[in-house]
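re: ur question from earlier - yeah i can do the single chain one, its not a big deal. heres the input i used so u can compare w yours
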Amino acid sequence: ASSGDVMTYDGSKIALTAPAGGGSWDEVELITAAASSTIDIESFTTDYDIYRIFFTLEGSTTSSHPLIRLKVGGSYQTSLYAYLSILMNPNLGTSYSQVRSTSSSRIQPSGDSFTAGDYMWGSIDVGSVNQSGQPNTLGYDINYTLGTVPQRVIGTAQHNSDGALEGVRIYGNASATLTGKVSVLGLKNSAA
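and the output i got, formated as C-alpha cells:
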C-alpha cells in the first residue's frame, strides 16, 4: 500500500490500489498582473480536458470594463464572436438586463463600466481547448461592485471558427490597465 491509494471491494475481498487517472484539478498557471494592458493565458495542453480561470482584478480608469479575446490559428481574433451576458443587481428587482452580439470584435461580459479602483472577481470556463472542428466556447461568471451596488454577470460566448483554442486574453477597454491575480486550473483527463 502507498499513500494516496484507494480502497476497492470486488464482492469477496478488499484491496488497496492506485487511483484511476484523470478527474483532478491542478493549478496550471498563476499570473500576477501589475497595470497590465493585457493578460494572456496560453498554458493550455492536451493533459487537461477543461480549464477554469479564476481572477481578481482592478481596473485603472473610470469607464473601463473587461473584454475577452481568444487565440485561434496563432493570433488573437478580432472578429466572429457571439456572446450573451446577463446582468443581475438589486436595483433591477426581479428583472435583468442583457448585453449580446452575434458578430463582434470581442466578448464583452458586462454592459456596465467600472469606476477606477473597483474590483471584479470571477471565473471563465473553457471546455473546447485542443479540439478542432467545432466553435471555441466558454462560459463566465463575474462579480463586481458598481459604486455601492453589487453586480453579477453570467454568460456564454463562442468564437465562430473551428481551429483549436490556443489562448484567452483578458483586457480593459479604453486603454485601461488591469492589476491583480489570475489562477488557471486544469481538469486532468484520464490519459494524462
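The CA atoms of residues 124 and 140 lie 4 Å apart. not sure if urs matches, ping me
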